[in-house]
């Protein structure tokens, strides 16, 4: 079936089911973000550092268990491992709901993160969809995560104020069980044995991913962004409580998040159409830097707090789709899973260290916290300046006929050329496809190299 025929009914069912599972799981993490620091303060043993650990603890276990869960899914199958991960996530939610100390809450959050099935869900999606539709499927999962974040940030304060924050963890546990029903009865099962695919992390490709300057800058960026997100919410709800009751905080979060999302859509469209992705990326990072300058100067007032958060979420909502979009442009086909795995682990480690940093600095003072975040974000902006412009990427295609019996040597040598980002052979139409940076090589250079290899 060709590109024009669209996704099959099975692929659409797969996308809908797996997007729901992603959304349910991430909603369960996001829903407590705006309220957990307030709730944890009421538990025995609470101090700013423990608040930060409780807030970001899930990120540590998420980062540690991503790879083991992926390896287990190769041996025991995707669905059984996803079910096990969701059960662990539900168990951690129950422990957090029944915690009688901040340490118990921290352990519950660690257990929540231990059910690290994100990479397995992506691998299952790859098993059940054709290659030409995987980008679309990944975009669908990205949309579900964005919506779960927005809904969770608004629903959390409302439900938490009405029924207690522990009710949010009970809701999370219930949704995890719903996710098990979806994986068992909605998502199709792969036929035959599970095989490694390009959407999985491979240690053999890790060196390339970590040495690629563009990918490294994006990994640093997602690490930094989620470090900032967690660090901000260690102190922000506590500071805002001086002016607004927790039950009314949704009135702040709703317009701030929706405003950021509203601005994000036209900004992404303009960036894509006018080929200004790097410019949009740098502007978004600049918004993050500016938000910490506002926080630093105005965290002692209601206006300063809300203005800082509004500016932060303009940058955050623009960066969330920009970073994976830029990342996918610089990955090689065979390193998709590894690049995505490092990206996700960077995000989760950022969330954990943001909790540690935010809690530790808040113990000193909020001035120390926002001063440090301002300094770190400024360094991040300087690193981001060196990002290779993704709009320099172009493609080269050439039919190679039936004489090429083994394309691998040609793919390898073309891939080693300066400026070549990716190279693959499409067996269906016998075309060699190359993605390259036009400021480092040309179509003529590629044509000469390929002609020489075919004549050899």
TrEMBL record:
Mode of membrane association: Multi-pass membrane protein
Protein name per Swiss-Prot or TrEMBL: Major facilitator superfamily MFS_1
UniProt cross-references to InterPro entries, sorted A to Z: MFS, MFS_dom, MFS_trans_sf, MFS_Transporters, Tet-R_TetA/multi-R_MdtG-like
Pfam family, one: MFS_1
Keyword Transmembrane: yes
Organism: Leptospirillum ferrodiazotrophum
UniProt keyword terms in alphabetical order: Cell membrane, Membrane, Transmembrane, Transmembrane helix, Transport
GO cellular component, one term: plasma membrane
TM annotation in the entry: 15-37, 49-69, 81-100, 106-126, 138-162, 168-187, 220-240, 252-271, 280-299, 305-322, 342-362, 368-388
Annotated Major facilitator superfamily (MFS) profile domain residues: 14-389
One Gene Ontology molecular-function label: transmembrane transporter activity
Superkingdom per UniProt: Bacteria
């Amino acid at each position: 079936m060709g590109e024009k025929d669209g996704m099959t009914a099975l692929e659409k069912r797969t996308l809908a089911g797996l997007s729901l599972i992603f959304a349910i799981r991430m909603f369960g993490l996001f829903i407590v973000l705006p309220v957990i620091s307030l709730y944890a303060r009421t538990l025995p043993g609470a101090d700013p550092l423990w608040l930060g650990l409780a807030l970001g603890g899930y990120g540590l276990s998420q980062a540690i268990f991503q790879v083991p869960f992926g390896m287990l899914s190769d041996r025991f199958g995707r669905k059984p491992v996803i079910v096990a991960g969701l059960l662990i996530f539900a168990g951690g939610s129950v422990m957090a709901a029944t915690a009688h100390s901040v340490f118990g809450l921290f352990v519950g959050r660690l257990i929540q993160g231990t059910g690290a099935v994100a990479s397995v869900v992506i691998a299952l999606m790859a098993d059940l969809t054709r290659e030409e539709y995987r980008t679309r499927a990944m975009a669908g999962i990205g949309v579900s995560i964005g919506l779960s974040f927005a809904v969770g940030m608004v629903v959390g304060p409302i439900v938490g104020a009405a029924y207690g924050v522990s009710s949010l963890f009970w809701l999370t546990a219930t949704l995890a069980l719903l996710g098990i029903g979806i994986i068992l009865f909605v998502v199709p099962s792969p036929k035959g044995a599970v095989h490694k695919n390009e959407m999985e992390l491979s240690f053999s490709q890790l060196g390339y991913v970590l040495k690629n300057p563009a990918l490294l800058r994006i990994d640093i960026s997602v690490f930094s962004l989620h470090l900032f997100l967690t660090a901000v919410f260690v102190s922000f709800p506590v500071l805002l409580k001086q002016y607004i009751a927790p039950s009314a905080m949704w009135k702040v979060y709703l317009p701030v998040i929706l405003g950021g999302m509203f601005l994000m859509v036209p900004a992404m469209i303009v960036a894509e159409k006018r080929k200004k992705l790097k410019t949009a990326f740098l502007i978004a990072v600049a918004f993050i830097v500016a938000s910490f300058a506002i926080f630093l100067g105005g965290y002692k007032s209601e206006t300063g707090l809300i203005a800082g958060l509004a500016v932060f979420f303009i940058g955050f909502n623009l960066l969330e789709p920009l970073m994976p979009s830029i990342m996918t442009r610089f990955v090689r086909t065979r390193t998709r899973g590894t690049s995505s795995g490092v990206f996700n682990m960077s995000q989760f480690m950022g969330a954990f260290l943001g909790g540690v940093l935010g809690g530790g600095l808040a113990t000193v003072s909020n001035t120390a916290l926002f001063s440090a975040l301002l300094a770190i974000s400024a360094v991040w902006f300087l690193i981001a300046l060196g990002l290779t412009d993704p709009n320099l990427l172009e493609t080269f295609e050439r039919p190679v006929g039936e004489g090429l019996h083994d394309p691998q040597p040609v793919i390898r040598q073309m891939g080693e050329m300066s400026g070549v980002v990716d190279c693959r052979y499409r067996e269906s139409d016998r075309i060699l496809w190359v993605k390259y940076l036009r400021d480092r090589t040309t179509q003529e250079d590629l044509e000469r190299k390929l002609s020489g290899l075919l004549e050899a």
